[in-house]
Amino acid sequence: MPGCPGRSVLASSTRSRRRSLGLVGLAIVGSGLLVNAYLAIIARTISAAEYAYFGAFWSLVLVTGFGMFLPIEQETARLLQVPDRPRGLLRASLLTAASLAAGQVVLVAAAAPWLARAFGGHASSVVAIAVLCLISAGQFVVRGALVGLDRMDRYALVMVLDTLLRVAFAGAVALLIADPGSSTFAWTLVAAVGLSHAPQLYLLATRRVRLGSVPAMGECTVTVGKVRRAVAPLLLGSLCAQVLLNGPPVLIPALATNEAEITRAGQFIAAFTLARVPLFLVVPLQTALLPSLTALLHSGDRAALRRVMLHIAIGIVGLGVAAVVLGYFAGPPLVGLIFGKSYVLGGRDVALLAVGVAGYIGLVLVTQVLVAAVRHRLVAWSWLSGVAVAAVILFTVPDLLLAAELAFLAGSVTGWLVGTLLVLTTGRRERELQRA
């Protein structure tokens, strides 16, 4: 953070780190299972066409939430762990997040006609997106503050409570409302996120959250401008990551021209939801890898770095082969079991999506190497290359469903290969400059 002393993060004990990582990892796995239960309840309550509209809403929520506010969560957590941590951080983070949310609400209002089409004509779903933009501003600041204050137990609790409320509200709607639409379920998400995070925001604001291993406050006071400048380099990569992952489910219902394509869009979203289950393990894996990668890069051992990149490549290729086999043979029966027979796609479709997920995991891991090397602009280039390739394929392949599958697959693999190339060539250029 410019102008604030002590940028380096304090090292925690190995035992504490493993315990915290294990706790959050369990919460992530549990939340992932609950989220899939939430989506399965919705899919079995409404038609495939209506589920396509909910899927568009769901995916756009991830873009506007994770894509916009995850960098604020990360920077809030980081600044709470630096020596002489700055004063006024929670206020500055909240105001920065609120300004981003206000901009999002303006964009939602401007794009309301297009969004209404993507949501099946449900104006209330457009309003729900706007409300979630505002709620997400507080949600991600709360998450970052809890991580930074070393309250991983509460962080895990909030994560699980959020998904439990989603399942409870969706189950209540399915049982109590005769013919609910996708917009009704959209508001279950708004209620769950708001109710699970608002009490924590109040406790943080009133300083009623017990501190963990947190450095003492210094003399520096952080400003909104400083937080904004720190977040900006991370924002582009974060948005591109969410657009690549969640863009196709939003665009397919909007681009569908008839009832058959809308039904296939619902089937695509169900299959994509199942194929993305391995991604729930990526978050704790990133956390576990980052300290080791940082130490490796600072040691200057290029041979070890090349071995890491080779191991990532071998692992992703092996995962891709397994994805082809499992997606083709086991994918359709699993989709039918979880979401219902009306959502079943062919084995080829599920296999393409599963291989795309393998490529996306490779891209995430390679960009973590770039983050550890403090190459944030190169992280953005990796994601941008994937989004660019995906966009070209999505709008050139005539079959809408196949276009979405190939766009995600090619975009993920392209980003992974570009990221790998940037990791290897960046180190080479640095050595050449040092010799010169």
**Can you list the strand order of the major beta sheet?**
1-2
Strand content: under 5%
Number of DSSP helical runs: 15
User: Structural class, judged by helices and strands?
Assistant: mainly alpha
Query: Which overall shape is indicated by the principal axes computed on the Cα atoms?
Result: globular
List the uncertain runs: 5-13, 432-436
- As for the number of domains, it is 2
For the report, how would you describe the main beta sheet? 2 strands, parallel
Q: What is the N-to-C order of secondary-structure elements (H for helix, E for strand)?
A: HHEHHHHHEHHHHHHHH
What is the helix fraction of residues, given as a range? over 70%
Q: How confident is the prediction overall: mean pLDDT?
A: 85
Distance between the ends: 31 Å
Rg (C-alpha, Å): 22 Å
Number of strands: 2
